[in-house]
Amino acid sequence: MAWKSFTEIEAWQSARKLNRLFWENCGPSGFGRDFALFDQLNRSLGSIMDNIAEGFDGGSNKEFAKFLTYSQRSCSEAISQLHRAEDRQHLNSDLASEWRSHLDEIHRIIGGIIRHLRS
What we know:
Layout: H1 10-26, H2 35-56, H3 61-87, H4 93-118
């Protein structure tokens, strides 16, 4: 795991892809009048990427691992928010389920990096 840039990290790349899919499918109009949920989900998805980037430049494995745990927490938040978006019928079940699966995978990848950094 000798990355030169955070953009080489698979979890960051996957989070970026999911951010793009979210924006392409939900767009700037959000979830109609439910802007608060749209904004929360948009911020959680962005936070996954941003914390990977911030931690990468943290100067130590300990600092990087700390920020990666923040990314994992953002994955969990986004999964919960996707359930709410589905329940409120902003997203169909298939799309929400697909995105939750992507988030589960990102969470798993980040967990592997954390374990490696702490070993």
